[in-house]
Every structure is written in C-alpha cells, then in structure tokens.
C-alpha cells in the first residue's frame, strides 16, 4: 500500500455496489432516512456501529494510559468527522460524541448549520487559508493548526470584531516532511514569544502529525520531540501545556508519550469513501 499524507496508508476503494445490491442494502435497515450509499458505508445501524467503535477506542485509550501510568481522564478524545455527512453525525451525537473535529472549514460550516440545534463543540484541525478566517471564527471552539503570525493576526482581528475567543494549538512539523504544514522546531521559541500580541487567541498547547510509517519507533520519536518542545515552550508561555498528537493508527503510542488530545477518525467512523481513503496498518481489512 502506498504512503499517504492523511491518516496512514492508502487502501484501494472497493467497487460500488450495483443498483440492485444497494437497493437491497437500503431496505435492510431500521433507519429509513439512510440512503443506499449510507448503508454501504456505515451499515444498516450507524448508531450501533459508532457506539461499538467508540467503546473500542475508549478501551484502547484506557490500556494505553495504564501502560503509561496515567489516568484515562487525562486524555481527551477528539473524533474527526471529515467526510461524514451531517445527517449521519446525528447518529454519532446519539452515540455520545458531542465534539467534532473537521479538516476543512467550509465542510464544517455546512454541518454546523445543519446541526445548529445540537450543542456541539467544533474543532478545526487542518491547515487554514487566510481567506477562510471569517468562516472559522464564527463557529469554531478551537483550532489545532496555527502555524503563522499572519494567520494569528487575522484570527485575532476577526475574533475582536465578533467579541469571541479561540483556543489554539501551535502546529509543529516534527517529521521534517516538506509535504506537511507546521513550524520548524527552531522557529517555535520566537513564535511562542509573539503569541502575547494576540489577546483573542487562547494558547492551549502544541500539535503535530507524526511520520506516516509502520515503524512505530520512528513515529514515537516525533511525539517525543513535540513533548520536549512543549516543555521548553512552557517556560516561555505556561499556557502551552497540552499536546495534541496521535491519530487512528498511532494514538496509543502518542498517549504513552504524553498526548493530552488524540484526534481519531477512521477507528470510529470507518474508511472514507474517497480516492485517497486511508487506513493505518491494522485498520485495513485483510
């Protein structure tokens, strides 16, 4: 399987079901609002699926915390809901998931509007273009990919107009991959020193995307680097206390290395139906 820059390794999508098969699948569900495509992707009982997957992830978090000598409560699970349709997210909400993480602001904004009656906390975890600042500040609770002072300035200015505040995590490129966003580790100290210029931003910690590799030793090094950088950053700004690191294929290693927030999508919601749908090793069906 080919490497990818999302959550892991590419798994070739299966061929779409025939109209007849899809129609039969749609008829075998207790939820009439589900389309044939919904059933093909999430099964006839999305609520049951999400509950079971969520319980499995929480159990894995518990065991990782035990190995690290930590309390389960010290780790926050942020479910990543990108590409999951808004009407399906209603099942996720019923399953007990009330915080949703999204990569793309426009996708998240549409879901926010559709689900406006639900008390959901929305997080943006992907790279933000400066022309999307206005879209983010009107609804997001936190932002996990702050990586430029220009962006910080625009966010702060817009938040001041709206009389809002935003929790932020500073993204650091710990893998050295040019394909990834984030500050170079050497640029972090001066960036941290400048955060005081943006009173509408509430720094919470650092975020990273580890190396996409089956070699968990190399992945672990990325997490250890972020932890060291966090310890140094806290001397300059004690508010930067948290580590947002770990996704579906490596969150247990991240917890062992001190993660406070783990961003988990496919282990809860399943494979994404896109040409670059991804699985980490161990999640792909054999």
Describe the structure.
Helix 9 (216-236) links the parallel strand 7 (201-207) and strand 8 (242-244). Residues 1-26 and 279-286 have low confidence and may be disordered. This protein has a single domain (45-271), classed as Alanine racemase (TIM Barrel, Alpha-Beta Barrel). Strands 3-4-5-6-7-8 form a six-stranded parallel beta sheet. Helix 1 (19-26) crosses helix 2 and helix 3 crosses helix 4. 40% of the residues lie in helices and 14% in strands. The chain is an alpha/beta fold and 286 residues long. It starts with 8 loop residues before the first strand and ends in a 7-residue tail after the last strand. The radius of gyration is 19 Å and the shape is globular.
- In CATH, the architecture is Alpha-Beta Barrel
Please state the overall shape, judged from the principal axes of the Cα atoms: globular
DSSP summary, beta strand count: 10
Structural class: alpha/beta
- The number of distinct structural domains comes to 1
What would you report as the Rg, rounded to the nearest angstrom?
A: 19 Å
- Strand composition percent: 5-15%
Note the gap between the termini.
12 Å
Mean of all residue-level pLDDT scores = 89
What fold name goes in the CATH topology slot?
TIM Barrel
Low-confidence stretches: 1-26, 279-286
CATH superfamily assignment? Alanine racemase
Largest sheet: 6 strands, parallel
Question: SSE order, as H and E?
Answer: EHHHEHEHEHEHEHEHEHEHE
For this entry, give a set of tags:
286 residues, alpha/beta, TIM Barrel, 6-stranded parallel β-sheet, two-stranded antiparallel ribbon, 11 helices, 10 strands, 40% helix, globular
